[in-house]
Amino acid sequence: MRASLLAVVGLFFSLFVSLANAEEGISGQFHLIDHRGQSVETATYQGKIRVVVFGYTHCPDICPTALMSVAEAFASLTPGEAAQVVPLFVTVDPRRDTVAHLSAYVPLFDPGFVGLTGTQEMVDATIKAFKVRVQIHPPEDPNQPDFYPVDHSTSIFIMDRNGGFITKLGYRAGEEAIVTALREALKS
Amino acid sequence: MNRRTFLVRGLMGGGIAAGSLLVIPGPGVAAPRTGLVVHDSPRPVMALDVRDKEGNAAGLGALIGQAVVLNLWASWCQPCVTELPSLDRLVPLVAPDGVIVVALCLDRSGAIGAAKTYTRLGIKNLAIFVDHDRKAGEVFDAPALPTTLLINRAGAEVARMIGPAEWDGDAGLRLAKALAKGGTLPRDFG
């Protein structure tokens, strides 16, 4: 009986370790261009908790409200807390989401938001570093080469003051859940 | 396979994608679908702090007794902005039937941002309403925009459209008029 119990505990421990190892694959490292045209990297935000959302601005049919939830959560923090947090929106579609485009887009959510783009190689490396899945589809109408859908995962990443992974929330996470996660991260 | 079919298939397939959403469902998490969803039974509409363009309270409670097409939109959402003119054209077409069209703006900039978008689009009939606390997505369980709630005269949600629609087209008119009559709604949009 005791052996069975130990085996079950061992199984759960193995599962826990394998899940933890899966998350360890998220390095959170990046080198990109922000919406003001400045070159930025993971170390640029040293000391700040980062809340990172991947997406693109040309949503063809529906647009997720995750970025809005992050904006509301950011606005709910005290000024002292907000000063220690930076919300980052990383485009998965750098061809259309240029610096100029992002500079008009991200302030619609909050003046403190940072939009990040770059060359396709820079964005690809970031996508890989966060283990985000992205699939860019060809244009449905050859006469409209700029109208193409992009599928991507939509987690909200909470990263620590060094840019390391803490946790990720689902795209439906509301303001409250994001605030809770940020306040927990701020304790570090 | 058209675009909408792809989206629905993708979302319902578990782990994929709405042209901007790749949803990895967790416990108790249902992926959104696009298109018209007619509910099996009416759902209560939760209270929300809605304001008019002057900032006065304009809650939906005041509209009970009328059929309401309630559209959730934001100026950063291109499909929403593309859809707004058709909602604007719908207003005079269904007003004689007692249908009120409410376009609720979720912008942080509130009425100012909504007014700018209306001016840019030449909106003539829609009034400005704003989601004062920006809670509409959460309150109405709408994780994607645009989402349009169809609310019966008793103030209950009977259907919703997820994604944009040509509201002043035949299908949109048929739906709005059926809502006004309180009868069975068509289950497909098209």
Report on this structure.
The complex is a heterodimer of chains A (188) and B (190). Chain A is α+β, with helices and mostly antiparallel strands. Chain A is 36% helix and 22% strand. A seven-stranded mixed beta sheet of chain A has the order 2-1-6-5-3-9-10. Chain A has a two-stranded antiparallel sheet with strand order 7-8. The longest helix of chain A has 23 residues, at 2-24. Chain A is globular, with a radius of gyration of 18 Å. Chain B has 190 residues and is α/β, with parallel strands linked by helices. Chain B has helices at residues 3-12, 78-94, 110-121, 136-139, 170-181, and strands at residues 35-44, 50-52, 67-73, 99-105, 129-131, 144-145, 147-151, 156-162. A seven-stranded mixed beta sheet of chain B has the order 1-8-7-3-4-5-2. In chain B, a hairpin with a 4-residue loop joins strand 7 and strand 8 (156-162). Chain B is globular. The two termini of chain B are 16 Å apart. Mean pLDDT of chain B is 83; it is low at 1-31. Chains A and B meet through strand 4, helix 2 and strand 8 of A and helix 1, helix 2 and strand 6 of B.
